[in-house]
Amino acid sequence: MSGAGPVIGAASTPHAPTGTAPADAPRTLHCEEPLRLGGENLAGEGEEAGARVRVSSPAPEGRPGYIPSVDDDAAQLLADRYELTGLLGRGGMGAVWRAHDRELGRDVAVKELRLPEHLGAEERATWMARLDREARAAARLKHPGIVTVYDRITGADGRPWIVMEWVNGGSLDDLIRRQGPLSPQHVADIGRQVAAALSAAHRSGITHRDIKPANILLEDGRAVLTDFGIAALEGDVTLTATGMIMGTPAFMAPEQVRGLTATAASDLWSLGATLYSAVEGNPPFAGSAPSAVLVAVVTEAPAPAVRAGPLAPTLEGLLRKEPAERLTMEQLQARLDQVAGAPPAPHAPPAEPAHWPTAPAQPPAIPPATPPAGPAGAPGAPGASGGGTPAGARGRIVRRVAWIGAAVVALVVASVLATRGGDEAYRENLRVAEAMGHPATFTVESKEHADGDRARVVYSGGPMTDGPSSRQWADMASWLEAAPGIDSAGMPVDPPTDASTEPPACLTDAVGCVWGTDIEDGYAEPTVLLANTQERDGELILVVEVGPFGD
């Protein structure tokens, strides 16, 4: 579960991967998925990790379902069995505790879900389901390189907890932060252990989808893969209806950024980015905002690897944009075995940078992703309600409209290069705007240098007759759900049912009918403004803006 931190033995606060914002920094890129809740045996056919759904002893009197202080759980006894003894790590959505299993007399790790009070019922269900997914995915696997799940219990306030193996060591991310770049041989040894764990997961029909240094735990030379919170389980199709981008931007494969289905090859890309981070000391792609990192993943070559030495060809083979061109698992394991077994070169100077394919001067726009499975109005998609125009650039814009009018969508992303000025900043913002792509049937009408070095790209969706057609809106809705860096949770999804439906009054407003999501303090987050404004010369217009906005 992202935000809860790894299952670690040292009492430390988990960190984000090197080169990214801290794990507790606010962000609008989520790793969420609405999945079924339930008390099924989480281990499937196996019993060792048999996770029985049990209820803990009563919570302290007056304790709410959402705990303002993580320390309130100290010394709590869960399911009359697991006594919490110390906090191992915490984040925005959870905490990980060391606990003592009174029945078996052993120490375990317990992952707790902690939800902010402002979350709605649907978002709470999403996060609870994600914890269940993590338990189900890990419990299906039995491998020394995958953290073992022992139990799944329900707290007195209804929140789920996962009881799992306690790994007495920190994460790979902790090691990189503490020691800096690691030797190619050390990284290859870690990589081959993780590759073996991934191979077992893939054979069981599970794609991890969030491989990164923080999710690899280290204990006495053993590497353990954890956090299956956004794993894709074969046969479970409930994930595809969200339209969310799930994962950690610096370690997501290009196809994940595009909104396409993650595969085993996607995990190999993420493992490549992870190994690159370990040997170089920083991820292969960086940016001042999540949207900029996502664009770089799709359109740019990785930063040259100068320390990788014999590992460089393997990294190049993993970080290829096209999944079919990447190394296979068998090829990867053979290469890692070879590098791990080679003696290190003492006092060797940094190797020449690996040869990476050159990115095009004008990166192509990210093509629209395959529309999510199911109808646009599938359960779990947010509904629509009336409201007013946004009060400012920050905070949640809660305006929603029931009728989907002609739309101008202003996607305003916090400046990619807020500290740069002139044409350089504009060109960077234009690159991000273009890489956001556009709806399948829309065409580019103009590109403009707007105020404050903002880049504005205008697209035409074609003529309208008494409002947009269902096809026009469906194309735009699919783009909004798949475009990198966009959280479209606030958008209405029902197309017009009657061409004669009278347009809403806000259609003629100066700013149009607006709804959207968040911009967060302290992190360069995207703000999404979906404005159903007046039609222009009878056409449906889409405007994408990237650059500094507001205060």
From TrEMBL:
Keywords: ATP-binding, Kinase, Nucleotide-binding, Serine/threonine-protein kinase, Transferase. One of its GO terms (molecular function) is protein serine/threonine kinase activity. This is non-specific serine/threonine protein kinase. It comes from the Bacteria. It holds the Pfam family Pkinase. Its EC number is 2.7.11.1. Residues 82-336 form the Protein kinase domain. It is an enzyme of class 2 (transferase). Residues 1-26, 40-68, 340-391 are annotated as: Disordered. InterPro entries: Kinase-like_dom_sf, Prot_kinase_dom, Protein_kinase_ATP_BS, Ser/Thr_kinase_AS. The keyword Kinase applies. ATP binds at K111. Residues 343-352, 360-374 have a biased composition (Pro residues). CDD domains: STKc_PknB_like.
